[in-house]
């Protein structure tokens, strides 16, 4: 039987790791604005010796552009501390294609640069008989771009997606992601692409190898990409509740997407993480408690991160033991951060 639960830390979580693999959208920033507490927390922990690599499924921008944005938000960042799915996609292309192979690039400047730096030749039309199509997110993509990709894939070009995120968080809310655009090409061709980004493990493993780290921690806001990728790569993962997935989604997470640690925001890196204990049928932590009885998830306590942890552990234990969980009883509260 496959089971998973939250982990405890023996001291502050950051002190147990030499590298943090940090997602960007929904973790460090939303649109043009920093997530509260994110820049100052990461700057302080970097000063204390924690290595940082910002690992993003957004393939539209150059690493230097991303680094400049982070620096402008108060988080001084070098381009070599940014690893994008565009770079991962280019690395995947090079495993199969020879230098000089023609590639139809459907994406933004970051993807175009990554393809060129990999020694491949960018083309603009399916009529140039590309060996591959690589598709990454860009807000400027048009129907014509998707059509060109569809023509090339239908003619036999290898289809590589930098990632298949269906949505992305923005300053105005949630918007369609690269996976939505990739799905249009799949619908037109019937061909499923290979994906280079999260949740595939290669992005994380390449970043860890480059940093020569021995104890990495993945940090993200999405269970289906960030945390699934962490489990796929074999690294522990921290879910922060500042982006796409919140308490309800964590409680209902399938084993392959569950986090090892749960925090309201990046300040959770300073915390000593405790795990709920089972007493008289309830999972308890601090003043919080949760249990599953007759398929219903019952909660007791203030809506804080301890209650979220109890809810997760209670639900996961019940589901992994073969019980049915009434999904309507999964909590929807926002974690209190004061």
Q: Which CATH architecture of the largest domain?
A: 3-Layer(aba) Sandwich
> In angstroms, what separates the terminal alpha carbons?
38 Å
Q: Indicate the structural class.
A: alpha/beta
Coarse shape: globular
Major sheet: 6 strands, parallel
Binned, the helix content reads 25-40%
What's the alpha carbon Rg, rounded to whole Å?
21 Å
- Helices, by number, come to 10
Strand order of the largest sheet: 5-4-1-13-14-15
Number of strands: 19
Strand content: 15-25%
**Annotated CATH topology of the largest domain:** Rossmann fold
Low-confidence stretches: none
Keywords: Hydrolase
Organism: Luteimicrobium subarcticum
Protein name: HAD superfamily hydrolase (TIGR01450 family)/HAD superfamily hydrolase (TIGR01549 family)
GO molecular function: phosphatase activity
Structure report:
With 338 residues, this protein is of the alpha/beta class. It has three domains: 13-57 and 199-270, HAD superfamily/HAD-like (Rossmann fold, 3-Layer(aba) Sandwich); 86-195, HAD superfamily/HAD-like (Rossmann fold), CATH 3.40.50; 277-329, no CATH class. It has ten helices and 19 strands. The strands form five sheets. It has a six-stranded parallel sheet, with helices on both faces. A five-stranded parallel sheet has the order 7-6-8-9-12, sandwiched between helices. A four-stranded antiparallel sheet has the order 16-17-18-19, covered by helices on one side. It starts with 18 loop residues before the first strand and ends in an 18-residue tail after the last helix.
């Amino acid at each position: 039987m496959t089971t998973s639960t939250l982990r405890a830390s023996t001291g502050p979580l950051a002190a147990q790791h030499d590298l943090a693999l940090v997602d960007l959208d929904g973790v460090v920033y939303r649109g043009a604005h920093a997530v509260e507490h994110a820049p100052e927390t990461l700057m302080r922990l970097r000063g204390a010796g924690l290595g940082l690599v910002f690992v993003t499924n957004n393939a539209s921008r150059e690493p230097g552009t991303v680094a400049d944005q982070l620096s402008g938000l108060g988080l001084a960042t070098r381009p070599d501390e940014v690893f994008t799915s565009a770079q991962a996609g280019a690395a995947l292309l090079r495993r199969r294609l020879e230098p000089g192979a023609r590639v139809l690039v459907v994406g933004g400047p970051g993807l175009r640069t990554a393809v060129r730096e990999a020694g491949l030749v960018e083309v603009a039309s399916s009529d140039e008989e590309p060996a591959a199509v690589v598709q990454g997110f860009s807000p400027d993509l048009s129907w014509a771009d998707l059509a060109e990709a569809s023509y090339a894939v239908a003619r036999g070009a290898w289809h590589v997606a930098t990632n298949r995120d269906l949505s992305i968080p923005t300053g105005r809310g949630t918007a369609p992601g690269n996976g939505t655009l990739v799905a249009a090409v799949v619908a037109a061709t019937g061909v499923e692409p290979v994906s280079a980004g999260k949740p595939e493990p290669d992005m994380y493993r390449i970043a860890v190898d480059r940093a020569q780290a021995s104890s990495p921690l993945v940090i993200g806001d999405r269970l289906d990409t960030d945390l699934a990728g962490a489990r796929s790569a074999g690294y522990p993962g921290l879910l922060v509740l500042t982006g796409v997935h919140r308490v309800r989604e964590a409680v209902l997470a399938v084993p392959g997407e569950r986090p090892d640690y749960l925090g309201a925001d990046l300040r959770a890196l300073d915390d000593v993480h405790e795990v709920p204990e089972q007493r008289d049928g309830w999972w308890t932590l601090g003043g919080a408690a949760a249990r599953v009885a007759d398929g219903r998830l019952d909660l007791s306590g203030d809506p804080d991160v301890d209650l979220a942890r109890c809810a997760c552990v209670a639900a996961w234990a019940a589901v992994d033991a073969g019980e049915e969980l009434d999904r309507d009883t999964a909590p929807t509260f926002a974690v209190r951060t004061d």
